[in-house]
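User: Let's play a game. I give you a shape written as tokens, and you guess the letters that built it. Ready? Here's round one.
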């Protein structure tokens, strides 16, 4: 009986795959009216698919994503601080263990790269890393928004918008600058300003990595012969890899440069 059920399941799967393959040949691609160049241009500049911000201004979907993620983070942190942290135990539960593991990872990252000054740095890299990771995988949820043209789109990752990536890079640079000022006053400012290209490199590293994944997925969706099943695998893999890699890279660079510019001057003489 079980063998017959397996044979029937395999037969249904083969028939479904055959129908999809025939469909790819018979059905015309819905994306043929728009060139792949136009798709890529809109993914970078967001000139067509804009969303109205409370009826006040047309903005890129990435800004809406950033506002949603920020709001969710604030509510989540408030709930955890009021209802969860007071109930922490010596023997941690699953949620407490996961939270302590994440906090401990970023705290060790801050301490190892800036042993002399790391209190604020640990808090920042944890917040920035959490935002980058959650913001990157946010697009997997497929939350819909209505554009100004009346069409429906899925909200993208906030850092796939060049404005969001630049702001993240500049914010990290300002944090590094604050470490230089706190540790070495004017000398620290000079150390930080020498790395004037750092915010640009950080910004475009994040933006380029996230955008490449979005463009690859768009290209796979564009060609109808590849648009069944494969985009799901590619989209999930690219998103998860970029979320992990970019979270680690930006927090590592921030902690590393923060430690360099905030290192006390007397250590250099010794």
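Assistant: Ready! My guess for every position:
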């Amino acid at each position: 009986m079980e063998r017959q059920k397996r044979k029937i399941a395999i037969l249904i799967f083969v028939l479904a795959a055959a129908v999809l393959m025939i469909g790819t040949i018979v059905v015309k691609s819905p994306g043929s009216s728009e060139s792949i160049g136009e798709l890529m241009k809109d993914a970078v500049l967001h000139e067509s698919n804009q969303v109205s911000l409370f009826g006040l201004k047309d903005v890129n979907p990435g800004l809406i994503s950033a506002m949603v993620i920020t709001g969710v983070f604030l509510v989540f942190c408030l709930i955890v601080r009021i209802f969860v942290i007071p109930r922490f135990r010596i023997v941690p539960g699953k949620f407490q263990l996961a939270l302590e593991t994440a906090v401990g990872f970023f705290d060790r990252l801050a301490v190892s790269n800036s042993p002399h000054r790391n209190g604020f740095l640990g808090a920042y890299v944890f917040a920035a890393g959490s935002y980058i990771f959650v913001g990157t995988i946010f697009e997997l949820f497929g939350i819909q928004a209505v554009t100004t043209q009346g069409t429906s789109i899925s909200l993208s990752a906030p850092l796939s918008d060049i404005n969001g990536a630049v702001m993240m890079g500049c914010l990290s640079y300002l944090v590094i600058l604050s470490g230089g000022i706190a540790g070495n006053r004017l000398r620290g400012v000079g150390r930080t300003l020498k790395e004037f290209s750092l915010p640009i490199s950080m910004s475009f590293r994040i933006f380029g990595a996230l955008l490449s994944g979005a463009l690859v997925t768009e290209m796979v969706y564009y060609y109808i012969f590849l648009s069944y099943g494969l985009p799901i695998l590619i989209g999930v893999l690219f998103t998860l890899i970029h979320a992990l890699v970019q979270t680690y890279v930006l927090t590592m660079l921030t902690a590393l440069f923060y430690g360099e510019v905030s290192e006390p001057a007397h250590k250099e003489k010794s």
